[in-house]
Amino acid sequence: MIQKINEDLAIFRDDNYPFLGGGNKARKMMALHEKLKSENYNAIVTTGGIQSNHCRVTALYCHKYNIECTLVLHGDKDKFLTESGNAKIIRNTPTKIIFSEIDQISSNMDKAIDNYKSQEKKPFYLYGGGHTFEGGKAYIDVIQELIEYDYIPDYIFIASGTGSTHAGLLAGIAKFKFKTKVVGISVGRSKNNAEKVVSKFAKELSENYKISNGIGKTEVDDSFLCGGYGFYNDDIKKLSGNSLIDYNIFLDTTYTGKAFYGMKKYIENNAIKGKILFWYTGGIYNYLAK
């Protein structure tokens, strides 16, 4: 669904994706369904923060399809046990939770995988953010919807986190030969790091799915980090607070609010003109988290 705000700005409502609570992480999780089913996986191990959208959809997916699930979470355990939003949804599933320091996530995930194998289960190691070829392909394919809606933008702005959604869009734009420029607004990584990750995965997607057209330039703007992941300024807080009234969407301060704010500043600073599409990856659960 594309929601037009004015003549030049529209929003792609990825939050309306109709499974697992919606959003880009749900779309990427469901893209894995056939692989998990056909290859008989019966457990998943993945990681994220205590309010992770990716962890929410993984927990819901596993509960729905009777697959065992272990989440290796980083963040405040007490907040996870008391906050609403994604944390509450995860708590309402039979998911096994392991709290971890960031530098121990990889080893804790390996241990969880080994534990499932010792029980003669077949576990799937799912990288944080749902970073898979299948998930990336979901965003190659979704570009078709822009054609169906007859809305081919000059620019797409998106919150850039783990980067697979951003990379999928770049590969999809190459496949359909659009001239659309994709600008990622970083929610945590530095510009150089984010652009390397996105560019690498976009090229891998292009090779894997035999997209012959060249991938466009990868651009990520890290000017709006406000100190790092999860941090925000007063302007982002105000934008988030008024988002339902002004734009009919929930912009949270960690992801989509930061990205929308960054988009507005980018347009202003670079005197951007043309059709602009903000890719709304979802935000209601983070908005209502506290």
Automatic annotation (TrEMBL):
The protein's required cofactors: pyridoxal 5'-phosphate
User: Which controlled-vocabulary keywords does the entry list?
Assistant: Pyridoxal phosphate
Record-linked Pfam families: PALP (PF00291)
- Give the molecular function GO annotations: D-cysteine desulfhydrase activity
The record's annotation in Gene3D superfamilies points to: 3.40.50.1100
* Keyword hit for Kinase: no
Catalytic positions are 52
InterPro entries, alphabetically? ACCD_DCysDesulf (IPR027278), TrpB-like_PALP (IPR001926), TrpB-like_PALP_sf (IPR036052)
On this chain, the residues bearing N6-(pyridoxal phosphate)lysine are: 25
Question: Which residue intervals define the domain Tryptophan synthase beta chain-like PALP in the entry?
Answer: 13-282
**Which family, according to the similarity comment?**
Belongs to the ACC deaminase/D-cysteine desulfhydrase family.
Q: What is this protein called?
A: Pyridoxal-phosphate dependent enzyme
